[in-house]
Amino acid sequence: MDIRAFYLFVCLEATGGRHVQITALCLIDGNALNADFDLYLRMTGRRRKQTQLGTYGDGMNRARPMLVFSNPLGAEQFDRVPILVHPKENLGQDEHRLRLVYRLYRSVGPGNRRVFYCYRYRQDVRTDAEVENLVDPFPVPQRGAQTGPRARFKLPFEVGLTH
Question: Which pTM does this prediction carry?
């Protein structure tokens, strides 16, 4: 059975000692991040792993793909506030504690957009605030096609031979 998913993004910041506080929170409909369910099925389906690797033949490569999409907390409007991103436009009518604050548009190719609706706790929003439109507000970092090296780090000094 396929179940529609929401993702929870939070920003934790240290407050001193062992304590942290949540400074931003976004509960977002999975389709606002990626609506290509076939891609998801391809990535999570069965695949072949490499076995009998390494000097002793007991190693394996599980060939697990990792998908990375934009982080909604990178949007300026989502910073330092709790927000719900939902596919339903009139959610505030059913749940009176919520107030629509943004229409979130995600571009899908030239001239085509999908819309989602962003809600905040009604008491946290100015009563005269108008609903704003956000078009592709999530930052997309520059990415190359090649992965970086893993499990390697550079020491801040050189190791040399001693006599």
Answer: 0.80
